Amino acid sequence: MRTLILVGLFAGCLLQHVWAAPKSQPKPQLEGYWTSQKGTRLIHIAQKANNRYLLKDVYPPHTQHIQGDRIAEVYPTQSTTPHYIGRTFHSTRYKKRHYWRSFGGFRIQMLSADLFRAKRSYGKPTLYRRYIPPKKGTQFPLIGLWREKKNGWLIWIKRHDQVSYVTLQGAVKHKFSKHLEVIAQFHARPSLPNTYIGRHKWGSSKIGKRTFWGRFGGYQLRSWGANRLSIRYLDSSHTPTWQYVRVDTKTK
Description:
The protein is mainly beta. It has one helix and 18 strands. The strands form two sheets. An eight-stranded antiparallel β-barrel has the order 1-2-3-4-5-7-8-9. The longest helix is centred in the N-terminal third of the chain and has 19 residues, at 2-20. The protein is globular.
């Protein structure tokens, strides 16, 4: 009888210990969209076969990558903290040199579910925060044809992918850019309702001058309702606010 009592007490203590033990926390997910701490880059991470994660640029530096270009690949390590190791992809847009750098020269350390630190074998580490696009219905619609109130300029806005938009030249005859040429790209800033940030194209493809992308953050768009928006070019010395009104909701 005494033995049965001791066995029962031991089993009760064991069950209490199991139920009281802290549950293992799920590892933070690496997949999704991420923006750098300064907001100068937007990347997308997707899980591929063989437990590989591929990083692609959504807004790349124009001198290094083409939009949508792969920039790195990583694999999870056996570390107790979420840690990934891999290599970067060297892509020079103008010299056309494309190759993978040595494995181990790129690392990612998850600091939380919405923050990670990326470190190359050279340079300072970069912090990335998770980018969550605003939910539908929280932003005024942008897609369609717009006309600038004072000068009559026309622009088309259409969606580029799940998180970003592009602005196209809407005028059939324009002095500097061709009809339906992409002249800007941007995405929403969740911290500021109905505010968008991106970059715009400098130069002129129509008169033979070299075109290049301005800095990220130099293009700011705000919507003031379903039929009005404003645009500012913050990387220009001439920074008035251009007011646009909606012409049509259809895009080509």
